[in-house]
Amino acid sequence: MSIAIRIKDCIDNHDKYVAIMATLPDKELAKKLYLVHIQSELAEKTKNTGSLELLEVWHQQIIEARIYKAENKIADVPNEIELTIADIEIIVVKSEQRHDVLNEMTQPTEKSRSEVEQQDNDSQLSLF
Q: Are residues 59 and 100 in the same domain?
């Protein structure tokens, strides 16, 4: 896609892109802002005016997204990796709970055996 088309797309869908970026964590928006800054410096050095225009639009959208996010207290939308990690953590917790239940079920029988043995010993001693 040419730079002119990308610039037009960014301008036409400005509100949509700002709303999407507002759901990202602020740390990620700060990283995007930093990368745009670095790319702008490179575009300036190479005198690439088309890229500079596009990067200015992106810069503005990222700043607006950060402001919009802060003003409206928009929660971060977790990415797929975070969702997968959360699912794995749930599975691990459930597995540990099952393991604990299994241990609880087997431990009372072991205790009752030792209690029975103790009672047998006590009853044998009482005969004397």
A: no
Domain range for 96 is 78-128
- Cα 57 to Cα 36: distance, rounded to the nearest angstrom: 10
Residue 91, both tokens: 């599975």
- Both 65 and 10 in one domain: the answer is yes
**40 neighbors 58 (Cβ within 8 angstroms):** no
Cα torsion 50, 53, 55, 58: sign: negative
What are 42-91's pLDDT values in tens digits?
999 999 998 999 999 999 999 999 999 989 888 777 666 777 887 788 88
| Six token digits for residue 50 | 């088309």
For residue 103, give every residue at least 6 positions away whose Cβ sits within 8 Å of its Cβ, in sequence order, or none.
Answer: none
Q: How far apart are CA 30 and CA 20, in angstroms?
A: 15
- Looking at residue 117, its pLDDT comes to 61
pLDDT at 16 over 60: yes
d(CA 40, CA 58): 10
